[in-house]
Amino acid sequence: MLKPIATHRILAFCAAFSLSAFCFAQSVSAQVAITSGNPAPAEPTATSLPSRSSSSQVRSTSTSSTVTEPTLVIRGDELPSAYGAPGGFSRSRFSPLTNAYVLPPGGVFAALIYEGDAFREGKPDHVFTQEVEVGLPYRFGLAVENSVEHFAGDTENSSFSIEGRWALADWNKIPLNPTLFAEYKFGTGKILHEEGPPPPPEEEEAMAGEGPPDKPDAYEFRLLLSQDFGENVEWAFNAFFEKENTGDRGREWGFAQSVQAPLFLPRERFKAGVEMQYQNFTVKDTRGSPIHRFVIGPSATWKPTTRMRFDVAPLFGVTDDSPRVQVFAIFSYIFGGGGGEMGAEAPASTRNR
After folding, report:
1. What is the model's pLDDT at position 69?
2. What is the DSSP string of 2-27?
């Protein structure tokens, strides 16, 4: 079990990470502003002065000038924009660990999500999730998820959940674009792998003939923050709190953070970055002795087409309670969207003008 001081170190590390990402973003933004300025118009060309004896020529003399049109370098996403947000934020999921902002009204996000946890001891855990979200007017979104778990040779339909989110304002009207997220999970199967410590021996013996306990219902709230810096660096931060309604009443709080930047390919077809997640988990009998999980690692996003996207993130555990390796792989597709309240997204070079 990690000592309490470890929590302070983790939080300090994450604060330093956020500050470093912000400073890097500002540096990139300043460099882009210096190198991408509009060319100044050319000076007007001089005209020859007419002779004093040619008064008619004086009246007809005119000056000419050459005007250079600014060149727009289009680096933007082709997806419809949600209330002025860049395409990377106009999706249900920003990265494997984080959500950001909302979908455009009429847009439908569908995803298949795989999470694999390799523990320091015991067999790995595999969770497959199907997610569908619909963008609604007035910056609302509604989603459903269904999760199937496979552990130690057993497979169970784990949970079914309903989610809703609401962005407080159009993009960049409020700093960090805060969005509220709420979810209710219905337990639909058995608990195949306990998140907390094993039950006392007497409870374990009492449950031996009954099999694994039922997965309880739970509710979760999140605060989603997101921002693009210099149109080259994108950042998302999620703070969350989850509580089980029955059973051992597990309680979890923490945060996830992601930073991504487009690389190599135009129109943000490939992005790479770093993400992390901290989780503090307790049950009713261990409130004063929580389990600390902290994972961090690289992430990559590839879009073979305008609306199709693949995400992958191999993350590595830092604390003793963390999985040794945690792998996320996501296939997603955007349907619909366009017209109405959002319109097509502007090029990155003209965004937010």
Report:
1. 47
2. --HHHHHHHHHHHHHHHHHHHHHHHH
Q: How far is CA 28 from the centre of its chain?
A: 20
**Alpha carbon of 39 to those of 35, 43, 46, 86, 231: distances in Å?**
11, 12, 21, 26, 20
Q: Strands 233-244 and 154-167, how do they pair?
A: unpaired
| C-alpha distances in Å from residue 287, one per residue of 279, 280, 282, 345 | 14, 10, 5, 47
Blockwise average pLDDT, block size 10, the chain, 353 residues: 51 56 47 42 43 43 47 52 90 93 95 96 94 96 97 93 97 97 96 75 60 90 95 93 92 97 86 97 90 97 94 96 96 77 38 36
Region of 340 on the Ramachandran plot (φ > 0 left; ψ -120 to 50 alpha; else beta): left
Residue 80, pLDDT score:
76
- DSSP category for residue 214: B
- Which domains, from first to last, does the chain contain? 87-350 (2.40.160.40)
Q: How far apart are CA 247 and CA 232, in angstroms?
A: 46
Whole-structure pTM value: 0.74
Distance linking the first and last C-alpha atoms of the chain: 51
CA 119 to chain centroid, in Å, comes to 25
